[in-house]
Specification:
homodimer; about 425 residues; 16 helices; about 45% helix
Chain lengths: ~425, ~425
């Protein structure tokens, strides 16, 4: 167990040194390493299962909820999933080295921007052990070293996965410090890590709101985070009713426990009387509980009253808050007040209303006539996802490989000076 | 004077409300406002001079250095400069609303990214009153509201400038809260502002290292900063000597007090014996003091010894540290160890060496055969500059209008759902 801030600083420093070597690797070497990592995980599955069994036993002894135990358990399917994800990352376009915005200035210097790795990325996560290999793969492909700090529940599983990945790295010449497992789950050690701003370039916390707030409040390193997803579906007066019900069902019922699921439906008053009864029938059939405003309850007397808290709630379950709005402006104001700047959807056939909705709603993903469930790195075409940001800085929305890089300016000339020089 | 955190929160909240209106403004309205602001500053110059005279008198009473008084003083030329800068910003391309990376996914949804304002930007600055109108103009053009918190030395000048800008806004329909002057220079009030992470999206501190560290360590809001510029000129074995001397003189002597001036020269050992004596002659002629390593002093015995501190130093004056390096790798390692990731230059005629230098040096601006003094928003073609970032996140290097915006995902479909929906 590593405890002192000095030891953590030493880890971060080694990781930084490794990051310089990773930054220089060719795409071919990185992709070969990703394939080797995938193969090694499959080869080591029994070792990983044995370590995982300890975590699962400890979890049961600690009375973790069945849902938490389920997240923790590794089986053949999940190991194959992890290996498959690494192979997918190998197939993605390498963002490093890409030049863009190249222009020649009047004095003849050529100015462009070159995409470069960030350096060292620290991923702080909770119970899912698959995050270990997913994050390692994405960070490596984007040319970064990664510091992995998983939760105590998955400690043995995470350690076994990293040991397996290190075996694969041995054949590639990539230093093992490029994928660094922090061998402690102590919270004070976490605070120590968050002070290493000279060596760590970015922290991405993944887990519950408590962990994320702790990281955000204690970090000197830039943090990319999202707390929750309170996603809205606004059924405009010019909405296609059938489409609205499809998007409502997909958004609310296809996987209610995820952050891009719908939590609130806003319905324009001009269509509420015809639309809400139809929506109520299908929602009831799918086992969804509605909680509504007074206008909703005038149309659907059986619906329970929605409180102020309901409109702020991320239910993550089969409940939906409903509000009838007077007009477009009230819908947008509601989203502004109660939303989480994650993902919001309008259903409308009006070109004008769709355009102002796209302009006015400040969420990381704004959708017109498409499901909130598309707010996902894979679905948006980013390849894979390292997380979702509702911080507007650097990355906003689902983050793929590109969000793990930055761009520097490259200036090339043939001796240009800013001022005339006389010796 | 506003003191309590509650009052500051109220200010930040009003600024956030105003930011929503600013975000919706058309380019034409913003440009008209910028021209009105420029004209009003010129009209109000006597009022501004009167306020400035109070600051200058207070500064002299407090024994501020002549350099600080010089930064503080406003005169006709500086007012014209401020008005001219606002008119320049009006002429720049508006980044807001730009769509990019538009692709159609296999299921027919169209995914793109739309450039949007950040929201509320807080600029914390010290003595130069021109920052008030420069920052207000850039933030407005990028569709943001701005919270201006200037230094105590320029308090009356800053206040008079903002009052003048507000007169101009009256004719435009833009709320005055879009350019909000925080009427206190108290440091505890600063801490209060830095806690308003629900309403302020970005903090940019501009000033001395003490102020910047204070902001970085006390902010819950993302901060974009740069501490210092320790810029290197590496004279490679394949360098053109005459070009190297031109770039050396431009970088070191054209304006030694700025962050993109050179502080250290690295010279490849193969050319040191011929190059250093020539460089020494011209540097001496320009009044530049050299401090060198042992190898340098073997060639130039009159040169003083450079200490470890010299290689870390941002002299901002006519001194340069010199080191003879064995090879390219030693040069890059030196830059990595002692540099500040600001701006570094190589002089070489070798295509291969220039390419690896561009790849290996992790600075925000990497230049080949061009002066470090081009590391500036205007020179790089960004239009104007709100600051320079040596934080890799969000923006890296000189920051123009684009760095004051972010991008959200826009998804448009015709009813696509992620899963097949049956009612």
């Amino acid at each position: 167990m590593l405890q002192t801030d000095k030891e953590l600083l030493e880890i971060a420093k080694k990781c930084k040194q490794a990051s310089r070597r990773v930054a220089r690797l060719s795409t071919a070497v990185k992709d070969e390493a990703l394939h080797a990592m995938a193969a090694q995980l499959e080869k080591d599955r029994e070792l990983i299962f044995a370590a995982n069994a300890i975590d699962v036993k400890n979890g049961k002894d600690k009375n973790l909820s069945p849902a938490m135990i389920d997240r923790l358990v590794l089986n053949d399917l999940r190991i194959s999933g992890m290996a498959g994800a690494l192979r997918d990352v190998a197939s993605f376009h390498d963002p490093v080295g890409e030049m863009s915005d190249i222009r020649t200035r009047p004095n003849g210097i050529q100015v462009g921007k070159r995409r470069i790795p960030l350096g060292v990325i620290c991923i702080i996560y909770e119970s899912r052990p698959n995050v270990t290999s997913d994050a390692a793969g994405l960070c490596l492909k984007a040319g970064n070293a990664v510091l992995l700090r998983g939760g105590s529940e998955a400690f043995h599983s995470n350690k076994a996965i990293v040991e397996s990945l290190h075996k694969a790295l041995k054949t590639t010449g990539i230093p093992p410090e490029a994928i660094f497992f922090v061998p402690t789950t102590d919270r004070s050690a976490l605070t120590g890590l968050l002070k290493c701003d000279d060596y760590i370039d970015l922290v991405i916390p993944r887990g519950g709101e408590g962990l994320i707030r702790f990281v955000a409040e204690n970090s000197r390193i830039p943090v990319i985070k999202h707390y929750k997803g309170v996603c809205h579906l606004y059924v405009d007066k010019d909405a296609n009713e059938e489409m609205a019900i499809n998007l409502l069902l997909d958004g609310k019922t296809s996987r209610p426990g995820v952050c891009n699921a719908l939590e609130t439906m806003l319905v324009h008053q001009d269509v509420a009387e015809t639309f809400l009864p139809k929506a109520a029938v299908v929602l009831r059939k799918k086992g969804v509980e509605m909680r509504g405003c007074t206008a909703t309850r005038n149309i659907l007397p059986e619906v329970a009253e929605a409180t102020e808290e309901d409109y702020y709630a991320e239910y993550l379950s089969l409940i939906i808050a409903v509000k009838v709005v007077k007009n477009y402006e009230e819908a947008v104001n509601h989203i502004e007040k109660y939303g989480s700047e994650h993902t919001d959807v309008i259903v409308t056939d009006s070109l004008k209303t769709s355009q102002v909705f796209i302009r006015d709603v400040n969420s990381s993903v704004v959708a017109v006539n498409a499901s909130s469930r598309f707010s996902d790195g894979g679905e948006l075409g980013l390849g894979a996802e390292i997380g979702i940001s509702t911080t507007k800085l650097h990355a906003f929305g689902p983050m793929g490989l590109e969000a793990l890089t930055t761009r520097k300016f490259v200036v090339t000339g043939d001796g240009q000076t800013r001022h005339d020089i006389k010796w």
